[in-house]
Amino acid sequence: MAGPARDRLPAMIELGPVAWPPAPIRTERLVLRESEARDRAAFVELFASPEVHAYLGGARPRDELDRAMPEVPGRRPGLFVIDLDGAMIGMVTFDRRDAGRPGHVRADGEEIELGYTFLPQAWGRGYAAEACAAALGWCADALPGEPVVLCTQTANARSMRLAAKLGFTEVERFEEFRAEQWFGVRSPVAPSG
């Protein structure tokens, strides 16, 4: 999974002039939508999962998440819940990359950064590629001309393969969060199948 190695819910960061929430985005198998109260248990599971957070700073204790998680978690611009047959299986996020962090493609930083996490039972079925491609299509329409970047640990082979499939190309590697990070930007070509 890709995104900042933070073990807390992402903070709301202004994306720019986008209408939020957008209408749900439908793919062949999935719906990308705004979060709802029914997603709370899946959010807790996502953040408590050691498998999901192996490359994201570690899982949080379930009891802590149960206490801290809002009734409707993840309701913010840039966060899509990934819904399969009426149940949340993951999320795709867009945030502004903090200018103080390493890895940028423009001098002022704050590029749009793609992040994603999926529950382990959803892995290996192509849902991440399908959801991320749809979300990237939305982003290209909503924020035309904005560079989209992705950062993941080089040790995360699944995330590295997904980045390539989505059309991201390496810009640089650096050490952050005590691990080697791969930083890429989405090239203007269409993602490969």
Briefly summarize what is shown.
It holds the Pfam family Acetyltransf_3. This protein has 4 helices and 8 strands, in the order ββααβββαβαββ. By secondary structure, it is α+β, with helices and mostly antiparallel strands.
Structural key phrases:
193 residues; alpha+beta; eight-stranded mixed β-sheet; 4 helices; 21% helix; disordered C terminus; GNAT family N-acetyltransferase; Acyl_CoA_acyltransferase; GNAT_dom; N-acetyltransferase
Give an overview in words:
It comes from Streptomyces venetus. Residues 30-188 form the N-acetyltransferase domain. InterPro entries: Acyl_CoA_acyltransferase, GNAT_dom, N-acetyltransferase. This protein is of the alpha+beta class and 193 residues long. Helix content is 21%, strand content 26%. The protein contains four helices and eight strands; from the N terminus they run E-E-H-H-E-E-E-H-E-H-E-E. The protein has an eight-stranded mixed β-sheet, with helices on both faces. Strand 5, helix 3 (127-142) and strand 6 form a beta-alpha-beta unit. It is globular, with a radius of gyration of 15 Å. The model is unreliable at 4-13 and 189-193 (pLDDT under 50).
User: What's the oligomerization state?
Assistant: single chain
Tell me the radius of gyration.
15 Å
Biggest sheet layout? 8 strands, mixed
Distance between the termini: 19 Å
Physical arrangement of strands within the biggest beta sheet? 1-2-3-4-5-6-8-7
Poorly predicted runs of 5 or more residues: 4-13, 189-193
Number of helices: 4
Mean pLDDT: 88
What is the chain-wise order of helices and strands?
EEHHEEEHEHEE
